[in-house]
Amino acid sequence: GSEDLEMVEELSRRAVAAVDNARLYGEAQAAVRLRDEFLGIASHELKTPLTPLRLKLQMLQRQVNGARLEGEPLSAERISEALDVSLRQVRKLTDLVDNLLDVSRITAGRLRLELEELDLASVAAELLSRFAPSAAQLGCALELHAPEPVFGRWDRLRVEQVVTNLLSNAIKYGAGRPVVVRVEEDGERARLTVRDQGIGIAEEDLGRIFERFERAVSDRHYGGLGLGLYITRQIVEAFGGTVRVSSQPGQGSTFTLELPRGALPVPSVR
Ligand code: ADP
User: Fold this and answer.
1) Which of 114, 152, 160, 218 has the fewest beta carbons under 10 Å from its own?
2) CA angle, residues 51, 166, 176, in degrees to nearest 5
3) What spacing in Å lies between the alpha carbon of 204 and ligand 1's midpoint?
4) How many CB atoms are located within 10 Å of the residue 83 CB?
5) DSSP letter, residue 148
């Protein structure tokens, strides 16, 4: 009768609610796990540069004290080496903290863009020459194919940040093989591709590497917070552009960035 029907309806409503609850509970648990994992990685990454920094500063302190007390001469070479190492570690820490700040700016919808006329080809050329020495230390050659200037209205620092992220990943995960950057115009859009021939990315990871805190490699040999590509995508989307990847494990990856050349981006993203 109708009572049976009501009871069946009530039971199925409860079943649906129970499944919903279980799903929400699962999602909340996964979010907590991701946060805890992130805190672990972030603390490790922030602490790593601090040890060499402290050691070098202690060494400098001993040298300076020794020189003062015993009239020992200060070795300019050792001082300069200690300062080089220290500054490198400070730069690493600054980059990490800047990335964390960017993520909170993005989640709060406070990413501001200051537009100016730029040539993407010369931005890429400048960054390649900035990165060439550190890439060369890994045996990695950087090649640029940008036969023509490609003008558009973008935020210089943000465009540099995006290209820097793609380039430094290509060098980091590039197994010391050449990295090729191309810049070209495609009608209303500018296209920049970064191709490496390194470790590549497994198909099941391709979708999640642009998410916050997501890293495809669990290998601690490759340090990182898994924030670079998330920030990259958020910035690119704020310009009304896209970033995508194609990759083969063991063969390398190609990241393709497309930016509208003239469109006015929204002032901030969420
Ligand atoms: P990370 O700080 O871990 O490098 P990113 O957000 O820049 O963070 O990248 C997310 C993950 O995507 C990386 O941990 C790595 O697994 C993968 N990845 C990014 N770029 C490349 C690349 N060029 N080749 C292989 N894997 C890459």
Assistant:
1) 218
2) 70
3) 14
4) 13
5) S
Spacing, Cα 249 to ligand 1 middle (Å): 13
**Ligand 1 touching residue 169 (CB < 6 A):** yes
Q: What is the mean pLDDT of the chain?
A: 90
- Interval 81-100: pLDDT, tens: 889 999 999 999 999 999 98
Q: Is the CB of 190 under 6 A from ligand 1?
A: no
Instruction: For residue 51, give the 3-state DSSP assignment.
Output: helix
Task: For residue 215, give Cα distances in angstroms to 41, 100, 206, 231, 251.
Answer: 11, 16, 10, 13, 19
DSSP 246: E
The tokens 């036969």 sit on which residue? Answer: 147
Question: In 3-state terms, what secondary structure has residue 158?
Answer: helix
Task: Find out whether 165 and 209 touch, Cβ atoms under 8 Å.
Answer: no
Neighbours of 242 (CB within 10 A): 15
Cα 78 to middle of ligand 1, angstroms? 35
Instruction: Express each pLDDT in 42-88 by its tens digit.
Output: 888 889 899 999 999 998 888 888 888 887 777 888 889 889 999 99
Contact between 216 and 205 (Cβ < 8 Å): yes
Q: Which atom of ligand 1 is nearest to the CA of 226?
A: 8
pLDDT tens digits, residue range 117-170?
999 999 999 999 999 999 999 999 999 999 999 999 999 999 999 999 999 999
The single-letter DSSP state of residue 266 is P
